[in-house]
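Form P-L/3: holo structure prediction, ligand zinc ion.
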Amino acid sequence: MGTKGKVIKCKAAIAWEAGKPLCIEEVEVAPPKAHEVRVQIIAAGLCRSDTHVISPKFEGAFLPVILGHEGAGIVESVGPGVTNVKPGDKVIPLYIPHCRKCKFCLSPLTNFCEKFCKGKNPLIEQELMEDKTSRFTCKGKSIYHFFGISAFSQYTVVKDINLAKIDDDANLERVCLLGCGFSTGYGAAINTAKVTPGSTCAVFGLGGVGLSAIIGCKTAGASRIIAIDINSDKFPKAKALGATDCLNPKELNKPVQDVIVEMTNGGVDFAIDCAGGSEVMKATVECTTVGWGLCTFVGVNLADKGLAISPMELIMGRTLKGTNFGGWDAETVPKLVSDYKNGKFDLDALVTHTLPFDKINEALNLLNQGKSIRTVLIF
Ligand code: COD
Ligand code: ZN
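OUTPUT (holo model):
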């Protein structure tokens, strides 16, 4: 009497239209096809990027859609050909696939996979499964997947190459944050920027991603970490996690980058943008020191034209880097789970709220009002 091979009816949060609250609906989740896995989601965090595609400013979203890309769960059933996981395994779905065969997967230089690098906007292009169909229907309509994950559903179907199998004793209500927020920020600092002991750092944007970047800078041994946000309510937590100074650009009488340059005798060694937008990107570049300043971009502001930069900034020895999911992949995320279990970092500080899944709109409101870092939704 199991569910294997059958359609599962369950609850999911559907974004029918941009700019509207999500609707908790009954959906049908089809069984997994070849190289697909059906996962029962146990917990999921809400990340800012979930809200980007339903912003009325964003053109090109695939709607209706089931959002969510920071989840953790248990394998319910697997389709033909799946060998990396089995029913009952604990897993974290990852929005960057890992086929382990392509030139990107075989390179130590990136966490990307050929399957992630093809489209114009890879982040929103995993809206359907490999056969170009969806596994979700609601009220007779096909519903799009999101980031290849769609964690805001009690059951979802993902490709086997989008799954990290994790330890059986992992706490899913915390390690769900390794599906995006923590890994993205922490990895930006330690994998992409490779922050060095004794260095000076600036982190722009103190959401779940930016605070995780601060944890990364501190873990790497930075001696000074300057935390920047336009919402000063974010400062106590940033300080608790390792920030040595906090700046609110709205409260300064000159550009924040000028203040940072003055504070650090010429600029920081490492700057990480975890807010996004041309203004923050410019400040990220200009607050780094000439000679060796390294800027790492994480944020993308969808309604924005991006960075305009003078060649002088680079000729003077600065380096610009970008990162997606902090350099982690399906092989390294299980190691992050072990690091968490072994107390290498704490995830509790990022979880400001825990709510039942059907209160997801409350979680969205908290994020939009700047009152939450991460709300973990319990399914
Ligand atoms: N200067 C300083 N801080 C700012 C500014 C600014 N001009 N504008 C906004 N902020 C602050 C906000 O007050 C907020 O505290 C913080 O920046 C952002 O935090 P959150 O909680 O809204 O967002 P996060 O941490 O969940 O996500 C941040 C990202 C930058 C990752 C996200 O917004 C993004 O750009 N996503 C697109 C890239 C992407 O999709 N990556 C992959 C999946 S995340
Ligand atoms: Zn995210």
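COMMENT: The longest strand covers residues 36-45.
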